[in-house]
Amino acid sequence: MTVKSSLRDRRRLQTSREIQRAALTLALRHGHDSVTTEAIAAEAGISQRTFFNYYLNKDAAIIGNAPSFDDDTVARFRESSGPLLADLLQALRRLLSNSDLDRSTSQLIDRLLVRSPDLLPIFYGSLKRLRDQIADLAVMRLGEDARADAELLAEAISHALADTFRIWANDDGMSADSIVDIAAAKLQVLRGLLTPGVQPIPAASTVRPDTQAMTSTAAAPIRP
Amino acid sequence: MTVKSSLRDRRRLQTSREIQRAALTLALRHGHDSVTTEAIAAEAGISQRTFFNYYLNKDAAIIGNAPSFDDDTVARFRESSGPLLADLLQALRRLLSNSDLDRSTSQLIDRLLVRSPDLLPIFYGSLKRLRDQIADLAVMRLGEDARADAELLAEAISHALADTFRIWANDDGMSADSIVDIAAAKLQVLRGLLTPGVQPIPAASTVRPDTQAMTSTAAAPIRP
């Protein structure tokens, strides 16, 4: 459904991105506290009224719009009889390929968080929205009784994905198509670490060696 | 080291708990925004000056002091050659048995979060502190290069633990001693869900059936 988006949809996405970039640029330049919606609108070359057509407030603009699973992806997931983890990863692949990721925006967010780690909580909300969407998908297959299990799984998946996003944002040589595969490899390392009675050897080799060093920073929030 | 705490330590812990209970009671009665450190001090029967000897601000008092691994537990963990997961769970058992958990405080927090879910982020900080401590332990064994893997593992463990805390807080029949074991069972369910190519059946039976229903609420933050 969203795969072939209309010109209007694409323009809307582009404008929301431009507002986000303006918000991030100003927060980096003057500090988060000094930024106003008025200044963001001016920087983006739009009216404040238009700003509020896109975002509720300045923090929403800084976070940007989180991608969400489109109806077609949800329907495919629901109808599939494949393995749960593989189907969830496939849904995430479709989500990312539909969202036309912008590396430079992710880099701005990274730089802002390095300068102002106290802004991390506002980005956690964005990660939580993705986590909740993944949990909702998993519940479709596991049943409502298993919501806590689905949430734990979704927590692990969204964390692995957020980590991989950070690697991708800072590695021009890494393609966006490989994000889900690298996150999936991280989840298999986790599975190994969760094996009881086994002395695990960290499977660093499952993650690209040149990006491994970057994963040693604190968990990054997801950014669309 | 902390296992046999001095009378002074125990008094200090008791006072910090009383201040926390006062803060939670006032937030439940009048709403979080209306609570002041002055009112909390008055409710707890202490001076405002004493309040600030225990907590930086009202939110810190509402969250309470997060438990941390004592030196002896860290030393035992470092020296053990046992399986990583088992050793982490053992360290958590010692942490919880040292922290003299207070169910009624946990219930107050639960009630406050049901009424004001917008306060969740202030509790996330507390959960993150525990997560970071677990990750630091795991890094001692896996090495600094594997910090991202250690953090993913710590994320899963702290989430499972927080979930189990919520079950324990609302189930008078559940002993605090079983918290880590139930969290460990949840982690094995997660491990099953992470198995590639397998159609997982949610292992609801690994979690006490009478508490299963409670796990269907959103992830709860940890509370000491």
3D structure, described in words:
The structure is a homodimer of 224-residue chains. Chain A has 224 residues and is mainly α. Chain A has 2 domains: 63 residues, Arc Repressor Mutant, subunit A; 151 residues, Tetracycline Repressor, domain 2 (Orthogonal Bundle), CATH 1.10.357. Chain A contains 11 helices and no strands. In chain A, helix 1 packs parallel to helix 7, helix 6 runs antiparallel to helix 10 and helix 9 packs across helix 10. The radius of gyration of chain A is 18 Å and the shape is globular. At the A-B interface, helix 6, helix 8, helix 9 and helix 10 of A face helix 6, helix 8, helix 9 and helix 10 of B.
Quick take:
Chains A, B: This is Bacterial regulatory proteins, tetR family. 2 copies of one chain form a homodimer. With about 220 residues, chain A is mostly helical.
What is the domain tally of chain A? 2
Largest sheet of chain A: none
* C-alpha geometry of chain A: globular
- Approximately what portion of the residues of chain A adopt beta-strand conformation? under 5%
Fold-level CATH name of the largest domain in chain A:
Tetracycline Repressor, domain 2
Radius of gyration of chain A: 18 Å
Helix content of chain A: 55-70%
Query: What's the level 1 CATH class of the largest domain in chain A?
Result: Mainly Alpha
Terminal CA distance of chain A:
19 Å
Regarding quaternary structure, what we see is homodimer
Tell me, rounded to a whole number, the average pLDDT of chain A. Answer: 85
Instruction: Give the helix tally of chain A.
Output: 11
Count of extended strands of chain A: 0
Unreliably modeled segments of chain A: 203-224
- Secondary-structure arrangement, i.e. CATH architecture of the largest domain in chain A: Orthogonal Bundle
Structure class of chain A: mainly alpha
Helix-strand sequence of chain A: HHHHHHHHHHH
Greatest chain-chain interface?
Answer: A-B, 49 and 49 residues
InterPro entries (chains A, B): Homeodomain-like_sf, HTH-type_TetR-like_transc_reg, HTH_TetR
Protein name (chains A, B): Bacterial regulatory proteins, tetR family
Keywords (chains A, B): DNA-binding, Transcription, Transcription regulation
GO molecular function (chains A, B): DNA-binding transcription factor activity; transcription cis-regulatory region binding
